[in-house]
Amino acid sequence: MVAGALLLTACDNGFEEMNKNPNAYIEPVVGSLFSYNIIRTAGASDDNTLYPNDKLSGAFMQFFASLNPYQWTGDKYLAKAGYSDGLFNAGYNVELKENIQILNLTKDNPTQSNLYNIARIWRVYIMHRITDMYGDVPYFEAGQGYINGLYKPKYDPQSAIYADMLKELDEAALALDPAKPSYGAADFLYAGNTDKWKKFAYSLMLRLGMRLTKVDAGMAESWVKKAIAGGVMQSNADLAKLNHTDGTALQFYWSGRELRGGEGVPPSAKGKGYGKMAQTFVEHLKTTQDPRLPFYITLWPGNADPTQLPTSTEPSKQKGLPNGYDYSTIKTIIPNWTDDMLAEYSEINLNTVGNNATPSIFQSYAEVELYLAEAALRGWGPGDAKTHYETAVKASMDMQPLYPGGMSVTEEEYAAYLVANPYVGGSFDEQMEQIHTQLWASLFMNNIEVYANWRRTGYPKLTPTNYSGNETGGQIPRRLPYPQSEASLNTENYAEAVKNQGPDLFSTRVWWDKE
Fold first, then answer.
1. Which of 135, 139, 206, 385 could form a disulfide with 376 if both were Cys (CB 3.0 to 4.6 A apart)?
2. How is the chain split into domains, by residue range?
3. DSSP 8-state assignment for residue 51
4. Residues 6+ apart with CB under 8 A from 101
């Protein structure tokens, strides 16, 4: 990520030239623009990090809980436009805008085919998060305002978006050529390594193919098999990540910075910050004797002073906050409640997964192996579900040295975990529950992906809350509403989208989330 700081000056100069002439091509521009695109997709504001990933998806999935109904609305299924708008606005106004510029600069230059096709893969990453969260969205006409003045793009059906994203991954992966120039050091994921980008493309294809199992099993099977045949990630050396440093500007991990601040669990709050760990997640980690518990969570003294971590991460001391309560209603289940008692409840570990220098993980090898376990279970892939499941658990536990904090899981701890939580087989549904409950536990802080996978599979089994005035009638939301500005500024296309998809509500299901 130090490279990111070195390239920002060149990036700014490139932007100035492109603002004068968007069709101009200057050699340093594309590389620095791609660097910036990766950084800003990882997160350069709350819009595409804290709001959609932590306060909404993270609370929906009962990783986080809060008594504050204004700061953590996802805990109570309440509407707050600034939160639900964030990913849409950042996705189109920042992430996709930059990506479309790269595509237009490189598409007609045969010597830059790798730059073009890597940007195509990255565009799919950007767009799949947006459509998964909102459903039907602008796709084919999206990002064209800067290029050709199209400022009111039509909304496309999610079915068409998915078909094109999968096609794009297929074509881009096949077109990558290690003999041609690539981004080199400007590529903060893989340093221009086309073989690793190909694995990422097919791993994304596996993710997207699995997304279709409820709505079109035949299409899902076809794309899952194609992804596996193409070659997905094989180890943690292949995972897609952006390294951060505990610096300033765009160098740090945005969620870590914000969770350490006033909206999360600042050490200065002495345990009484807003964003606590949820009872569901904490109890799961304790019940399963998960050795990742001290990596994920701690009591506040460990966040205030890392030397306290050995005692403040002791599993028996951890306590999760129930979802769906505020400072008053919590007394209905804890009659003697005082706000000072918040200090007894667990927080995200700011020394590890919540650190400013925590890497942004776009897709992990552990996730890939869990989807391969499902593929094997369905008869769509090689091997057996048990082996893929155990490989996924090992991959997840082996990721800890990639993070700050100096933690690791020993071979003995890994083996003991599998003894305590063996892959038991059983019916199809029982195996799906075990695979995807493990995905939930393994992908903590990639909460947007966990939320999408939960909507598809229904696992883990979560008990919804029913806070007074919630938007869903006491059911976990199925999507986020569009920004209110779309109804006023892109009125005709917004209205057509609502007509086709259904009411613009938290409870409306997206296309692949077939009931």
1. 385
2. 1-43+81-230+481-515, 45-77+253-477
3. I
4. 18, 22, 33, 146, 147
